[in-house]
Amino acid sequence: MKEKNSSREKLLDITFEEIYIHGYAATSIGSILKKANVPKGSMYHFFDSKKALVLAMIKERLCPKMDLFFTYEKQEDLTVFQSLKQTFAFMAKNRSLITHGCPLYRLMVELSSVDKDFDTLLVKKYEEMRNKLEALLQIGIDSNEFNETLKPNTFAPFFITSVWGVLSLSPSVSSPKLFVSNIKQLLTLLELHQKK
Predict the structure, then answer these.
(1) b vs e for 140-161, b when ≥16 Cβ sit within 10 Å of the residue's Cβ?
(2) pLDDT of residue 125
(3) What CATH number is given to the structural domain containing 123?
(4) How many domains does the chain have?
């Protein structure tokens, strides 16, 4: 049983890597099986199609990674602003994220308009992220860190899509330095709402 589970886990890991780097359309079942060193029959024991494999990968690999990349939570002993700065400092050190962009954003762009099941799952994760950031910003307002001019329900989606924008640049022009520079601009906008 352990070997079967390790084959399933390997398939999910490789599927995440391949689709993250190459996209859904450019990733074949054959390339996943070859890299995972798993026979085709074993794959179909766990997943009845490429779509089923990718849906499982989104739930079990992509969504947890999004929570790791975008930790929109107040850290103990830090202000909301400092917590966000810490999140982005962590992201800037993630070479894969800077090079290949946000995996959720990439899949939303590629798959949301072509498949309802993918769209439902991906949008749900986006909404979870947006709600977490809205809640974090509301904590800042409630604790008098930010003034009432900050509107979490409009600032949160603007903030997330702005971060995705800088992460969506081609690897040939993307860099940690460029990411940090753009994030500083976003944080400067947030600073305008800080209480003096």
Answers:
(1) bbeeebbeeebebeebbbebbe
(2) 96
(3) 1.10.357.10
(4) 2
- Cβ atoms of 104 and 62 within 8 Å: the answer is yes
Cα dist. 160→18, 23, 56, 196 in Å? 24, 21, 24, 25
Residue 62 lies in a domain: no
- Both tokens of 7, joined, read 């084959």
Q: How many whole angstroms separate alpha carbon 121 and alpha carbon 59?
A: 8
pTM given for the model: 0.91
pLDDT tens column, 17-76: 999 999 999 999 999 999 999 988 888 899 999 999 999 999 999 999 999 888 899 999
23: left (phi over 0), alpha (psi -120 to 50) or beta: left
- Per-residue pLDDT, 2: 46
Question: Domain limits at 47?
Answer: 1-57
CA distance 44 to 40: 7
- Distance from the Cα of residue 151 to its chain's centroid: 23
